[in-house]
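Quick one:
INPUT:
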């Protein structure tokens, strides 16, 4: 897993279509974070490329996310096929028939996938306004869609990339701004300085003799450097996949607090960690939140954390008064793992014969 903040989505538009399995395997080995699949219908854009059957064939070849970018006139008609093919996210263009946009976004989100809208260079971001609450992704095109290898439109990037974040303000964690078109080592630092999450890199990676892995690493590093010095006061960005412990609590309280936090759109992982053993013999659970959302979680839930910790202390005292103290359970079940037996239950078990 790559460190840092920026992620590279490898576009397979210019890969060797005669051996796509090899192309996918090679890009994954060279450090791709995900794959960007351009779907064109020859109508919305003057080119024909992939369809859902190709994506379905690619899906078993990689566990990396597949981002489908639908440059087609009738996305609603084909959404179910792309979902069935195994896309992790589906983005289509806001310039299509407006009557299709909301139902298509709803269908993607209902299936548990990330839903996005793309804007062409000449389309203002304000076109996204009616749909902002349904968006997980905003994809800004910095070339005219339809063909790879075009020159980067710096003025479009400067106007739209940082501003696109506003259309994802309803989603505190997991929302992504993508940029597609002319992304390479020459443009990555500028793009990173505009807060982009996902950089779609295509034709430059498939040039014969080019070191694909080095290009991917350079793009990520330069994008992170741009973010660091333009938007983050010179501090390195928080790694996108880093998690931090927000609190340690007994199992039942951890489960409740986890649900409280997740209601606000912040994902939580609960793990048996390094906390104290409780009088029921079970160690505290760590509630982990994304490091990038630690400040927001603290802002929202600092008072709740103090309240839960106080409740945990009272529960421990009450448990000891009623049941005494069980020996520690050294197993490490998950959040839904079995509850350790009580001392009385242990005593009642028949002795093992030998």
């Amino acid at each position: 897993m790559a460190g840092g903040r920026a992620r590279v989505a490898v576009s397979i538009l210019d890969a060797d279509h005669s051996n796509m399995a090899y192309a996918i395997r090679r890009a994954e080995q060279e450090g791709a974070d995900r794959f960007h699949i351009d779907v064109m219908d020859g109508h919305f854009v003057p080119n024909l490329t992939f369809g859902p059957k190709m994506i379905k064939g690619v899906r078993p070849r990689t566990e990396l996310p597949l981002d489908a970018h639908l440059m087609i006139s009738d996305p609603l008609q084909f959404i179910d096929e792309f979902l069935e093919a195994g896309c992790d996210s589906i983005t289509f263009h806001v310039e299509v028939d407006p009557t299709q946009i909301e139902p298509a976004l709803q269908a993607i989100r209902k299936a548990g996938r990330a839903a996005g809208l793309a804007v062409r260079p000449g389309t203002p971001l304000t076109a996204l306004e009616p749909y902002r609450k349904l968006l997980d992704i905003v994809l800004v095109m910095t070339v005219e869609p339809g063909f790879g290898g075009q020159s980067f439109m710096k003025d479009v990037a400067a106007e739209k990339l940082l501003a696109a974040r506003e259309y994802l303000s309803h989603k505190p964690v997991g929302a992504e701004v993508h940029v597609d078109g002319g992304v390479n080592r020459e443009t990555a630092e500028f793009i990173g300085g505009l807060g982009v999450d996902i950089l779609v890199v295509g034709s430059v990676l498939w040039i014969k003799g080019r070191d694909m892995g080095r290009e991917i690493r350079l793009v990520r590093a330069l994008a992170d450097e741009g973010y660091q010095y333009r938007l983050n006061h010179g501090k390195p960005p928080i790694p996108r996949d880093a998690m931090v412990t927000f609190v340690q609590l007994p199992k039942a309280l951890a489960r409740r607090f986890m649900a409280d936090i997740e209601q606000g759109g912040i994902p939580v992982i609960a793990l048996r960690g390094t906390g104290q053993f409780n009088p029921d013999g079970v160690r505290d659970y760590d509630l982990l939140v994304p490091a990038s959302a630690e400040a927001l979680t603290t802002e929202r839930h600092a008072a709740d954390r103090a309240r839960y910790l106080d409740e945990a202390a009272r529960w421990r005292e009450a448990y000891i008064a009623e049941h005494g103290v069980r020996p520690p359970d050294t197993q490490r079940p998950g959040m839904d793992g079995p509850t350790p037996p009580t001392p009385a239950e242990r005593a009642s078990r028949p002795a093992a014969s030998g």
